[in-house]
């Protein structure tokens, strides 16, 4: 009887540990999704600000979020802002290229913003060719390009004019 009780207890502990692991994995996936939001910034324009290290799992989540937002918001332009990515190497560039290709298949133009001077030098030294992708140094310049791509303009407000 004690042995049976011990087996039952061990089985319950194993199931409990598996549930905890599932909960942690789900929490981890939720954090990844939260860390790669896709935001509608204007009609037909979405933005994905990327902050932190981009590994294969995260790159997949970025692509999925971007593609879902392109479909949901009927976006013609997507901005990928990589200002917060500490290192852009050939692996990260490959993930970005795949994401751009997928977005184009859905009919959206992609503008990459926030490539640092160091990243640009590194990518050039590594012979990574991003010449077929529209890039801008800042998010502001990327937004200006996005508006041009949809045939719109945003004018700065005059100082002293109330709206």
Task: Quickly list its features.
alpha/beta; 163 residues; five-stranded mixed beta sheet
Our estimate of the beta-strand percent is: 15-25%
Strand order within the widest sheet? 1-2-3-4-5
Major β-sheet annotation = 5 strands, mixed
As a percent range, the share of helical residues equals 40-55%
Order of helices and strands: HEEHEHEHEH
Structural class designation? alpha/beta
Topology:
Elements: H1 2-34, E1 39-42, E2 45-51, H2 56-73, E3 77-84, H3 90-105, E4 109-113, H4 117-125, E5 134-136, H5 139-149
Write a compact overview of the structure shown.
This protein is an alpha/beta fold.
What does this 3D model show about the protein?
This protein is α/β, with parallel strands linked by helices. The chain contains five helices and five strands; from the N terminus they run H-E-E-H-E-H-E-H-E-H. The longest helix has 33 residues. The mean pLDDT is 84.
